[in-house]
Amino acid sequence: MRTNSPSPALLAPQPRASQKVRDFILVEAKKHGPAERWRLPSIRQLAAHLNVSMATVQNVYSGLGREGYVTSAAKRGSFYHARAGGRSNETLHIGLAFIWEDDARHAWEGGIYAGILDASLACRSQVNFSRFNPSPDGLEDIRMAHTAGKLDSMVVLPGRILQPVTTLCAELGIPVAFLLPPEPIAVSNFICPDVLRVAAKVADAFLKSGRRRLAFVEYVVNDNKAYYTLYRTGFMQSILEHGNSLDAFHHIALGADSTASDIKKLLSGPECPDAILCGGDNMAIEVVRAAEELGLEIPRQLSVVGGSGVSFHDPRLATMTRVQQPVNQIGHELFLLAEALADHPDQLLPGRYLACGIIHGTTTTAEENRWLKQARRSL
Known about the structure:
Elements: H1 17-32, E1 37-39, H2 43-50, H3 54-67, E2 70-73, E3 77-81, E4 92-97, H4 107-121, E5 127-131, H5 136-147, E6 153-156, H6 163-172, E7 176-178, H7 195-208, E8 213-219, H8 225-241, E9 248-254, H9 259-267, E10 275-278, H10 281-293, E11 303-306, E12 321-324, H11 327-343, E13 357-359, H12 366-378
Parallel strand pairs: 4-5, 4-6, 6-7, 8-9, 8-10, 10-11, 11-12
Antiparallel strand pairs: 1-3, 2-3, 12-13
Helix pairs in contact: 1-3, 2-3, 4-11, 5-6, 7-8, 7-12, 9-10
């Protein structure tokens, strides 16, 4: 007698491959809780784990993405969000890679940080800031935060010392908002104060007023080289455009322990400058102090322009002619860029271009100030 085989309708139904993937994700989501965002396995890893095709996993991830539960980005991977809508209802995790020193040379970073914090108060999400440094421990902290899904984007400023941070971010696919690109060819997102054009206008004002011995002063011991390079480049470009109208040019790179002595040596030499642009306001204060000790009259014998526009407690700053960097606005724009990159990590978003200004004081002559005022209107 023939034995009938079981009807297919009576067999336990086999879950479809895509349902296996969804079930795995739902089980993992319960483990993580309703308020967490967590990293999903790579498509290859999950396909091998569940014995399904990579195309199946990709289709599920894409479907959950359309529903607002999964976000994906090249190099960064895919993340599951407990609430539909993605990261918009969750904490925004932004890393900050600064120098974090109390030295006055980095006072402008405090203004930038204040701008970042001010902008975060208006953010639609709660913001969590984490500080990172380029030490081995700091880089490992970045890896751990990235793996845990607690690093949506990074703000890095400026470049040389923090290069290991930017390199690691590129390796991990962490979107970065740069104050200034350490390597312009490799970086697409940055906000840069217009120091190059302003420095050129300062040199132009000096030369049009009859100054013939110019100098540029900068530090070599901190991480502001990118700024100083822009200042110096713009300054020298203007000098070159004036042809043979210069008698002497000095480029002074100050070390940490020789600031006062190097400046006095410059000012007491046979080719003492009659006009100096300084990379930072603190340097300009040192120049003014040294000139006064040597009996030089400012601005008749020596004009001095500061370079950062950061507030110090020295009373000389109140009357100094200086370049004004919009540090608070820079911080505000950096936060907006970091926020946008967190929402669109797979896109290359440009930063907003912010211009510097010029504050007119008594360390430059009335004629030089007239030229600087005209230059400001053309910036």
